[in-house]
Amino acid sequence: MNATNDQSDILLQLDDVHTHIGAYHILHGVDLAIPRGQLTMLLGRNGAGKTTTLRTIMGLWQASQGRISFDGQPITALATPDIARCGIAYVPENMGIFGDLSVRDNMLLAARNAPNADAIDGKRLAWIFGLFPALEKFWLHPAGKLSGGQKQMLAVARAIVEPRRLILIDEPSKGLAPAMIANMISAFRELKQTDTTILLVEQNFNFAKQLGDSVAVMDNGRIVHRGAMAELAEDAGMQARLLGLSL
């Protein structure tokens, strides 16, 4: 069930991570290794602990036990801004964009090394516009006026406006029309070619199987399966057992 990775190939590692939110014990000893340069899907039923895992990695919720390491260095006790400075970006399920600000100003806020919009790396911006043409079209428009799919594009674009070593993304296809999901799949395929490591939470199994290199499945706050995404995609019985899917 578990693939063995050389430790040097692991960018992010969670060892026996527990998270409490108030009186609730959400993560019950999560063990998870994210291979460098791969897109890892984190799957599971609603309430399994997937979003809590991402938020704990980012320090938005503090692990109450266990260790989180990024490129071999402990980050468990770091504050969220310090974790971000390590080269980790987070795209939350609610997208986290600023609706009153323009698309340009949303991008500028994410481009920490650019004092103004003209200082954003032009070559990288052109690449992002190639992925998400609507962002160039609505560059000066308030982000709150974008469609749901365009807001999701902006949320992902903010995460990649500067090179990141790891991107955590929570349900990017949620609520999107099929054409917008196809666009998002194409964008992630191109992003994978840049050797960016991605940990992606998703409920849409068709989306997941088209993009994932490796997969981890959560249930009741624990990782219950690890392996190749292709293996899970080909095994309907395993899907039904782990995810309750009948495809």
TrEMBL record:
Keyword Nucleotide-binding attributed: yes
Gene3D superfamilies: P-loop containing nucleotide triphosphate hydrolases
Pfam family name, one: ABC_tran
Molecular function (Gene Ontology), one example: ATP binding
SMART domains, per the entry: AAA
CDD domains: ABC_TM1139_LivF_branched (cd03224)
Keywords: Amino-acid transport, ATP-binding, Cell membrane, Membrane, Nucleotide-binding, Transport
The keyword Transferase belongs to this UniProt entry's keyword annotation: no
All residue ranges annotated as the ABC transporter domain in the record: 12-245
Lineage: superkingdom: Bacteria
Family the UniProt entry places it in: Belongs to the ABC transporter superfamily.
Protein's recorded name: ABC transporter ATP-binding protein
Organism: Actimicrobium antarcticum
